Amino acid sequence: MRRLAVLSFHTSPLAQPGTGDGGGMNVYVRELSSALARAGVECDVFTRAWSDDLPDVVGVEPGLRVHHVPAGPPEPVPKEHLRALVAEFADGVKDRMADSVAGLDEPSFDAIHANYWLSGLAGHQLKHELDLPLVSTFHTLDRVKAESSPEEVSSDEPHQRAEAEAQIMACSEIVLASCSVEADQLVDLYGADPGRIRIVPPGVDHAFFAPGYRPQARRAVGLPEDGPLIAFVGRIQPLKGADIAIGVLEATSASFPDAHLVVVGGPSGPHGTEHLKALRRQVESAGLEQLVRFVAPQPHELLSTYYRAADLCLVPSRSESFGLVALESAACGTPVVAAAVGGLTTLVEDGLTGYLVEGHEVDGFAAAAAKLISDSSQAEAFGANAVIRARTFTWAGAAELLRSTYEDLAAERLVGCR
Q: In sequence order, what are the residues at sequence separation of 6 or more whose Cβ sits closer than 8 angstroms to the Cβ of residue 174?
């Protein structure tokens, strides 16, 4: 494998995670592409141009380039309206791929790696037009979201998404899963071929995400130096459960009146701004205005300071294919209280690195948080265990697994559509 076309249609790896449609997928595409480039695989990432001011190509580092491909108006387009632009995007990517090898000493492309179902649609088209193998990573799955947050599926995605995901899986040479739970979901909910699923866990950049001195971290980001601090990091949308985090602070405030909550993230999805207003009303109604701090999305390399500042990190998501926030927090030595869903169940070792909570009732999360707040020695032990566990997840390791997966493609015939 010498050169890879990476599709990230609806969000750019250069965009700020934590706001709009930017999240863990942005981090995944950038970090994994970077690790592959350093391992000798040229990576060209193709994303939709959302502004006239964007350069056609950004050279991120040797072996990694991001291409801004025109498709639709040069402005942000709601994710639920992007499907109509897939064919135009695929045609633009095809032209860019041809231009990037014409008359140059650059190697031709060996495979396509599509991220999310919209990119998968473009990848499916390009696979057949260019006769290249297709690798697909879905990041989230419609049928999983339908079980956990049906209201978001009906408002956020066209109802045809699940069928499109199934078709993409059926025609992909390889479907990547971040953990065994996601692999099982692919088989059980979509009938994916287990023989074509490969588990490649994401990593964490340990140069940035590492333990530190909590008081100094709090001073660095202007958070209260005294009292317990709970962190919530993620996009502001119902799926992520920031309302539960606020409920936890309210439920524990009688026992821990000096506890604070910091919410780091920005509105996401068609109702994100509305949801943020609802969260602020929830804070006001509970009389917690002086104890809750809303912080705008932070550059990824600075996010670690917020993890280090906290006594614990809450991840009460209603579904989570992997849970990069939980891994980043663990790498910083901050124990996690997470919902027992999806990939979070493979990241958090209950009673050892943090707590897993069944269901989505505030009381369960509040009880787990109270255990850590009231027992600093246990919290410290959990944090130390979390760091050790997190060290097994690296982007270099993910790239090596993926590189061997790509190499397997060279010896196989392309899968035909059913």
A: 133, 134, 135, 136, 196, 197, 198, 405, 408, 409
